[in-house]
Amino acid sequence: MNELIKRIEKLEYYQRLMADMIPENGFPFHRLIIRKGLSEKEVMRFFNTCDRLSMKIEKQKAEGFVYNTPLFKEFEAELHASLDVHEVVDSCITQDIYPALMKQLKKSL
């Protein structure tokens, strides 16, 4: 069992090293996920939230709703506790992940 723990610790160390090897302007959201140690399930929850909020923002735009603060607060409340909302929004914009949603959220920062 002790050997297994040592191997896992080594893999985690290598993972951190590889995350540092990603160029700063390359994949900032992926680097953030690795640095914060989020699981695949936690990342999928993030993407599901973004899907839902993207649909919600499109509906609100169609209805002429222009205030983003409630949407921002909802996004922030559902964000994983180890993630900083500013860092997430900026990294997603850079990496072109949910660009329309993130640009709207950026307006509320």
Overview of this protein structure:
It is a single chain. The chain is mostly helical. It has one domain (2-106): YhaI-like (Hypothetical protein YhaI fold). It has 6 helices and no strands. The chain has helices spanning 2-21, 28-36, 40-62, 69-78, 85-95, 99-106.
State the major sheet.
none
What does the average pLDDT come to?
91
| Extended strand count | 0
CATH superfamily: YhaI-like
**What percent of residues adopt helix (DSSP H or I)?**
over 70%
Could you write a compact summary of the structure shown?
With about 110 residues, the chain is an all-alpha fold.
Features:
109 residues, mainly alpha, Hypothetical protein YhaI fold, 6 helices, 74% helix, elongated
Please write out the topology.
Elements lengths: L1 H20 L6 H9 L3 H23 L6 H10 L6 H11 L3 H8 L3
Helix pairs in contact: 1-2, 5-6
